[in-house]
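Case study.
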Amino acid sequence: MESHTPLRAARESVLLRVDYKSSEALGLSYLTNLSSGGLFLRTEATIPVGTQLKLVINFPEVVPPLTVDAEVRWTGTELQSLAKGVGLAFRNVSPEIKSRLGQIVASLQPTNSPLSDEATAPNESVPLGRGIRIVLVAASEVIAAVFRQRINRIGRERGWVVDLVLVKSIDQLAAPLSERRARMFIVDQDAVTVPAVVKMIRSDARHARTPIVIVGKASVAEERHSIETLYLRKPISMKPLLGIIGLVGGQHGGGQV
Amino acid sequence: MTSPAVILLVDSTERSLKVAASLLSQDGHRVLTVSNLDDAENIIENQPLDLILIELNLPEISGHDYADYLRDARHVNAPIVLWSSINPDRLGTLVAECGAAGAIRKDIEMNNLAADVRKFLPMPRVNDTVKAPQ
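After joint prediction, the assembly is written out as follows.
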């Protein structure tokens, strides 16, 4: 999505024109909140929660443009891109519009073929969905086991094959970094020195923009290294993590992030 | 004569473990306490248990995620009960999500802890030394 300029302010609603370069953006945004039927709208504008909107969604593949009522449910940052914006919930969606949105979303689902990470160029945007490597940097076998159980369960439900690699120290990180491209890193702040790990990951061109989720007990805002680095406070809750993994995997990850 | 129920308490707070263990021991149970997941795993692996009581707010990982793992991946048969002071509605949601047997509200005095725990325990087991009537 590229622009979203308010065109008209009605008594109780705001009309937004949303132009997409392709339906991909809508699909990804829509998928991030599929369960409640909405999308994330990137915007620098301040739009208060509760604002009623009328979206005119215009993108090349769909004629005529879709018009959908929506309401601002939250404001903040999209985890996938860390872009600022608002979370919108669709309102009063007619069966026809719902059907059209569903068709667009369905057309964007990942393919069934196994993902060839080795063929992936650095920073290339590739639809995921089958076969994702996640590297967990943590000291605890139990935490790794809990991760594996939950990720495998959601993988079974969605047809993913998740390759979760446990790394207990920075010395062990080199091997999985060199083997194949990881889709996501989860780093336990208590297990390793975070800046060193981040530096090591980012030094690999294939992982220059790979999401890194750092979990820790303390506030780690001052350790922000790049826009692709996310922070979660302990105790680790699987729900938001699975949500992030779902975004990385190209599908909704089962839980409000 | 019945065997005491074997209860595992998982909580990172020493005071909570001490008070709860004392109360449950007075109620006739054998209580094992652990403050980290590695120790919990060790006991679960090696010790038959009648009940596992897990504090929701563990330091490393949420108690309900750990409960889910025990039930789903470890196939633990003993009832797993969440223990927390959070909003009951929220606690109920977490219980449903992780497949726990239920939840016990955690308060400072723990006055009702023994009675609450009894609700989740299986029927008393007949001790091997007592023979059934012929």
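Observations recorded in class. Chain B is about 40% helix and 20% strand. Helices of chain B lie at 14-26, 37-46, 63-72, 88-98, 113-120. We will return to this complex in the next lecture.
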